[in-house]
Specification:
The protein has helices at residues 17-28, 46-54, 76-79, 123-132, 150-163, 181-189, 204-213, 217-220; strands at 5-10, 31-33, 36-37, 63-64, 68-69, 104-111, 138-145, 170-176, 194-198. With 222 residues, it is of the alpha/beta class. The protein has one domain (5-220): 3-Layer(aba) Sandwich (Rossmann fold). The strands form 2 sheets. It has a 7-stranded parallel sheet with strand order 4-2-6-1-7-8-9, with helices on both faces. The relative contact order is 0.19. It holds the Pfam family AAA_26. InterPro entries: DTB_synth_BioD, P-loop_NTPase.
């Protein structure tokens, strides 16, 4: 039986998508795929980061290779300017067919409106493209900061997804950082579903608590 897919996006860059993806992979015993990786001239890449996190833990995901790996720490569109041999197209992407009986975490590049192609297609278009290539159900998890600034960024992200016709695909938000009950309550008042609130993790016990905070995968697809 085919297992579900969760696409992890964020309200900004460096918002905690990769750390959250690693937590989700552990919680749900899921595999991992980063379709487009940038910034390799200054960073080992998110696939290696998730692999390092999962090493010596209960679950080691299968890692699907990025379809594109670019050097500059820029959005895919701008990173291509420095490597003109690349011309990313949405048609280049399809959900990996291997291990379809296991859950899959797909991590986007930056936020939902990050431009990916020279046609100015964005992460939203990529999600729609991936859904066209598979019969597996896909849900979207939005990673947002917990503190100041999160209300505007998070609500705009959710509004964009709604306007793009993806409202039913949005499972909810994971707030990353020191817990802020007021921000969480305000987001809920605007209709946002808060799946988990993950504080900074400085120890193994913190990581265990963060994983326990994440709901079971089945609840996202009810």
């Amino acid at each position: 039986m085919a297992s579900p897919i969760v696409f992890v996006t964020g309200t900004d860059t460096d918002i905690g998508k990769t750390f959250t993806s690693a937590l989700l992979a552990q919680k749900w015993k899921a595999n991992y795929w980063k379709p487009v990786q940038t910034g390799l001239d200054s960073d080992p890449g998110d696939t290696k980061t998730v692999a390092g996190f999962c090493k010596d833990r209960k679950h080691m995901p299968h890692f699907f290779n990025p379809r594109y790996s670019l050097q500059k720490p820029l959005c895919p569109l701008d990173a291509m300017h420095f490597e003109p041999e690349y011309d990313i197209k949405l048609s280049d992407f399809s959900v990996p067919e291997e291990l379809a009986d296991q859950p899959l975490i797909i991590e986007g590049a930056g936020g939902i409106y990050v431009p990916i192609t020279k046609k100015l297609e964005i992460t939203t278009h990529l999600i729609k493209r991936l859904q066209e290539t598979t019969q597996r159900p896909i849900k979207i998890v939005v990673v947002a900061r917990s503190g100041l600034g999160t209300l505007n960024h998070t609500l705009l992200t959710l509004e964009h997804l709604n306007r793009a016709g993806l409202k039913d695909r949005v499972a909810g938000c994971i707030l990353n950082g020191p817990k802020n009950p007021q921000n969480s309550a305000t987001l809920k008042a605007f209709g946002a579903s808060i799946l988990a609130e993950v504080d900074h993790c400085d120890s193994e016990s913190d990581i265990t608590a963060a994983i326990a905070e994440i709901p079971d995968l089945a609840t996202l697809f009810q």
